[in-house]
Design brief:
Elements lengths: L5 E2 L16 E2 L2 E2 L15 E8 L26 E15 L2 E8 L20 H4 L1 H18 L13 H7 L10 E4 L1 H5 L1
Parallel strand pairs: 1-6, 5-7
Antiparallel strand pairs: 2-3, 4-5, 5-6
Length: 187
């Protein structure tokens, strides 16, 4: 299971995420879960973020133009991937269990939206989308190795991890994913 609520600053006392509500359920103390998608075993890891930058039909969540980034490059592809720009670790901060995200290597400043109580919730999936895709790919490969051949369809349309990078009906096709590095931004 991967679960997290991302923040770039300590969560305020009125944070909407990171603390269980109710704190006790049926006499059992509740705790918010945090799994770092960039370091499943714990500790700090580098996030691989991905954003949709071309929205031909509508503005939707996950658009770099409405999210938490203060900067994104012009791209000829519908998706852009930011490598090596954010590190993350699960921390206990102000009584909340959250994924603390920190810019590294000239990564863009991350701003809570629509206000600090939300943290980085608007872009939670996008902040680690590349890590999550890689996780699905590795789990799919593991499933393929363990399942009898008659139960596994190796085609990309049936394996979610393959669909994202190679394309089918996801809207993400070969050539639609631009990798953006801090080296490119600095130059």
């Amino acid at each position: 299971m991967v679960a997290y609520n991302a923040f770039s600053q300590p969560p305020p006392s009125d944070a909407l995420f990171g603390r269980p509500d109710p704190t006790v359920l049926n006499g059992i103390a509740q705790q918010e879960v945090c799994t770092n998608p960039a370091a499943l075993a714990g500790g700090t890891g580098t996030l691989v973020s991905a954003y949709r930058v071309q929205l031909p039909t509508q503005e939707v969540a996950g658009s770099a133009t409405e999210g938490i980034l203060d900067y994104y490059p012009a791209a000829s592809t519908p998706w852009i991937q930011f490598d090596d720009q954010y590190s993350a670790s699960c921390v206990k901060s102000n009584g909340a269990n959250v994924l603390m995200v920190t810019p590294i290597h000239n990564g863009s400043i991350l701003t809570a939206a629509p206000n600090p109580a939300w943290g980085l919730h608007v872009d939670d999936p996008n902040l680690a989308l590349g890590n999550l895709v890689d996780l699905v790919q590795s789990e799919t490969a593991r499933l393929h190795q363990r399942a009898p051949a008659s139960r596994v369809n190796p085609g990309p349309a049936k394996c979610p991890g393959h669909a994202v990078r190679h394309g089918d009906n996801t809207g993400i096709t070969a050539g639609s994913w631009l990798r953006w590095s801090t080296d490119a931004r600095a130059g």
